[in-house]
Amino acid sequence: MPVARIVASYSENEKDTITLLCGVDEENQIRQGEWFGVVKNDDGRGDESNYPFTLHVDYQKNTFYLDYGYDDAESRQMQKTDIYSKPLAEQSFFTIFDEEEGEEFSYRINSIHLYD
Questions:
Q1: Above pLDDT 90, what percent of the chain?
Q2: What is the SS3 assignment for the chain?
Q3: Where does the pLDDT of residue 1 fall: very low under 50, low under 70, confident under 90, or very high at 90 and above?
Protein backbone atom coordinates (compact mmCIF):
# COMPACT_ATOMS: atom_id res chain seq x y z
CA MET A 1 0.00 0.00 0.00
CA PRO A 2 1.49 3.36 -1.00
CA VAL A 3 1.80 5.95 1.75
CA ALA A 4 1.54 9.66 1.02
CA ARG A 5 3.00 12.62 2.88
CA ILE A 6 0.79 15.60 2.18
CA VAL A 7 1.75 19.18 3.02
CA ALA A 8 -0.98 21.83 2.75
CA SER A 9 -1.13 25.54 3.59
CA TYR A 10 -4.00 27.47 5.12
CA SER A 11 -5.55 29.74 2.49
CA GLU A 12 -5.44 32.83 4.74
CA ASN A 13 -1.89 32.35 6.07
CA GLU A 14 0.61 30.29 4.04
CA LYS A 15 2.78 29.76 7.14
CA ASP A 16 0.00 27.75 8.84
CA THR A 17 0.31 24.22 7.53
CA ILE A 18 -0.98 20.69 7.85
CA THR A 19 1.25 17.67 7.30
CA LEU A 20 -0.50 14.33 6.93
CA LEU A 21 0.79 10.78 6.52
CA CYS A 22 -1.83 8.45 5.05
CA GLY A 23 -2.37 5.41 2.89
CA VAL A 24 -3.68 6.04 -0.61
CA ASP A 25 -5.27 3.77 -3.19
CA GLU A 26 -4.47 3.47 -6.91
CA GLU A 27 -6.76 6.44 -7.63
CA ASN A 28 -4.86 8.65 -5.16
CA GLN A 29 -7.70 8.79 -2.66
CA ILE A 30 -7.14 8.37 1.07
CA ARG A 31 -7.69 4.80 2.22
CA GLN A 32 -9.93 3.87 5.11
CA GLY A 33 -8.16 3.93 8.46
CA GLU A 34 -6.65 6.23 11.04
CA TRP A 35 -3.82 8.46 9.85
CA PHE A 36 -1.42 10.74 11.70
CA GLY A 37 -0.96 14.44 11.07
CA VAL A 38 0.06 17.70 12.65
CA VAL A 39 -1.23 21.27 12.30
CA LYS A 40 1.42 23.96 12.62
CA ASN A 41 0.29 27.52 13.33
CA ASP A 42 2.92 30.22 12.82
CA ASP A 43 2.02 33.74 13.87
CA GLY A 44 5.19 35.15 12.26
CA ARG A 45 6.64 36.25 15.61
CA GLY A 46 8.58 33.07 16.28
CA ASP A 47 5.78 31.58 18.36
CA GLU A 48 4.83 28.38 16.53
CA SER A 49 2.33 25.93 17.93
CA ASN A 50 1.90 22.33 16.80
CA TYR A 51 -1.24 20.25 17.23
CA PRO A 52 -1.03 16.53 16.45
CA PHE A 53 -4.22 14.84 15.28
CA THR A 54 -5.55 11.59 13.91
CA LEU A 55 -7.53 11.64 10.67
CA HIS A 56 -10.33 9.05 10.85
CA VAL A 57 -11.59 7.79 7.50
CA ASP A 58 -14.46 5.29 7.56
CA TYR A 59 -16.34 5.02 4.27
CA GLN A 60 -18.85 2.46 5.61
CA LYS A 61 -19.97 4.74 8.45
CA ASN A 62 -19.58 7.88 6.33
CA THR A 63 -17.37 9.49 8.99
CA PHE A 64 -14.37 11.66 8.17
CA TYR A 65 -12.90 13.82 10.91
CA LEU A 66 -9.80 15.07 12.67
CA ASP A 67 -9.45 14.02 16.30
CA TYR A 68 -7.11 16.15 18.41
CA GLY A 69 -7.33 13.45 21.13
CA TYR A 70 -7.21 15.26 24.44
CA ASP A 71 -6.88 13.10 27.56
CA ASP A 72 -10.32 14.11 28.83
CA ALA A 73 -12.98 12.57 26.56
CA GLU A 74 -15.38 15.40 27.40
CA SER A 75 -13.02 18.05 26.01
CA ARG A 76 -11.98 16.22 22.84
CA GLN A 77 -11.96 18.41 19.78
CA MET A 78 -13.14 16.80 16.56
CA GLN A 79 -13.50 18.57 13.24
CA LYS A 80 -15.05 17.20 10.06
CA THR A 81 -13.20 17.39 6.75
CA ASP A 82 -13.81 16.78 3.06
CA ILE A 83 -10.24 15.76 2.14
CA TYR A 84 -11.49 12.26 1.26
CA SER A 85 -14.07 13.46 -1.30
CA LYS A 86 -11.82 13.48 -4.38
CA PRO A 87 -8.41 12.20 -5.47
CA LEU A 88 -5.49 14.03 -3.89
CA ALA A 89 -3.77 16.46 -6.24
CA GLU A 90 -1.26 19.25 -5.78
CA GLN A 91 -2.85 22.72 -5.78
CA SER A 92 -6.29 21.29 -4.96
CA PHE A 93 -8.20 22.44 -1.88
CA PHE A 94 -9.91 20.74 1.05
CA THR A 95 -11.85 22.14 4.00
CA ILE A 96 -11.89 21.49 7.73
CA PHE A 97 -15.18 22.33 9.42
CA ASP A 98 -15.12 23.51 13.05
CA GLU A 99 -18.78 23.06 13.97
CA GLU A 100 -18.22 24.16 17.57
CA GLU A 101 -16.88 27.56 16.45
CA GLY A 102 -18.97 27.72 13.27
CA GLU A 103 -15.89 28.19 11.10
CA GLU A 104 -14.42 26.63 7.97
CA PHE A 105 -10.72 26.47 7.14
CA SER A 106 -9.59 25.93 3.55
CA TYR A 107 -6.19 24.42 2.80
CA ARG A 108 -4.31 24.14 -0.50
CA ILE A 109 -2.22 21.00 -1.06
CA ASN A 110 1.33 22.17 -1.77
CA SER A 111 2.99 18.78 -2.19
CA ILE A 112 2.30 15.07 -2.20
CA HIS A 113 5.17 12.60 -1.79
CA LEU A 114 4.35 8.94 -2.38
CA TYR A 115 6.29 6.10 -0.74
CA ASP A 116 5.90 2.41 -1.58
A1: 65
A2: CCEEEEEEEECCEEEEEEEEEEEECCCCCECCEEEEEEEEEECCCCCEEEEEEEEEEECCCCEEEEECCCCCHHHCCEEEECHHHCCCCCCCEEEEEECCCCEEEEEEEEEEEEEC
A3: confident
